[in-house]
Amino acid sequence: MNETLKVIADRRSIRKYKPDQITDEELKQIIDAAIHAPSARNQQKWYFTVIQNKDLIDRMATIIQENAINTGDEFLVRFMSAPGYHVFFHAPTVIVISCDKEANFVEMDCGMAAQNILLAAQSLGIGSCTIGFSRFLLASREGTELLEGLGIPEGYGHLCSISLGYPEGPLPAMRPRNRE
Q1: Of 30, 42, 91, 168, which residue is the least packed, with the fewest Cβ within 10 Å?
Q2: Alpha helix (H) ranges present in the chain?
Q3: pTM above 0.85, yes or no
């Protein structure tokens, strides 16, 4: 199996990280992989915000948890209320992916950029997990203001986040794949 296919096959969503920060060089390579993703009309209407401040990541996690619980959705209440739950799994780095809300095909473009982030991280021995729950930041003024304070361009909206860090413990086993 060639190296690219091996990286794809070996990638797992990591939900337990060592506290050690990834290096600046690793982060640069991961972001470079993201901006090399294809985009419709080569618009590149994405924006990547890198957060490595533990207090800020923890504050974001708290806001997300509170907002999700406040929806009253039974699944979310049960899931988010689990003891010790942290939406970013205490990862030392989080990348928030935002996009121009008016651009054509931007969700697909950002999805391809996100996949490049995940695969680049895997190739460097860095664990990752795509976080869709981070959309709950926007469910309160505090979360919206926090996102605005990150310097995301006007007219851009939050799409998802990715947690990054060195995996702690054994990697999860591959779950069965539907080949039909």
Answers
A1: 42
A2: 3-10, 24-35, 54-69, 74-80, 106-123, 141-148
A3: yes
